[in-house]
Amino acid sequence: MKKIVLAMAVASVTAVSAFAAFADETNPAIVHRQGLYKTMAGHMTAMKSILFLGFEAPADLSFHAQGILDAFGHMGNSYPPGSDKGETKAKPEIWTQPEKVKQRAMDGVAAAKSLVAATAGTDKGATIAAFKSMGEKCKACHDDFRKE
């Protein structure tokens, strides 16, 4: 009986996930950038579990830091004309303040590089400081360009 209930639960979650993937946004630029941002957020969440919640996987910190940096490298032209049409959390200012957007992106990349460097060492305090800095850079961009 337990196996049947478990199989039904797994099937339900799979069906809901598949439906959500097809029912969500169809603007490819929005889908792409949201996927990259979710990837970065996932890496930050995993790092939080290691740095602050006691998950025993310190060797994974460098993987997650590199993943964040790699995601920045794939952002490309994530805000092309027309990518404001659809389900987006981007504020209109993201299309009218390109220099500020560029600066926020460069700040994020610099913080990601510092995070990668910190995770290459053994100083947990340095890694925590770099992690917090990365979070501050993300928040600064969100404050300026992301709707609540």
TrEMBL record:
SUPFAM superfamilies: Cytochromes (SSF47175). Pfam families: Cytochrom_C_2 (PF01322). Keywords: Signal. Residues 1-23 form the signal peptide. The keyword rRNA-binding does not apply. This is Cytochrome c. It comes from Candidatus Magnetaquiglobus chichijimensis. The lineage of its organism: Bacteria, Pseudomonadati, Pseudomonadota, Magnetococcia, Magnetococcales.
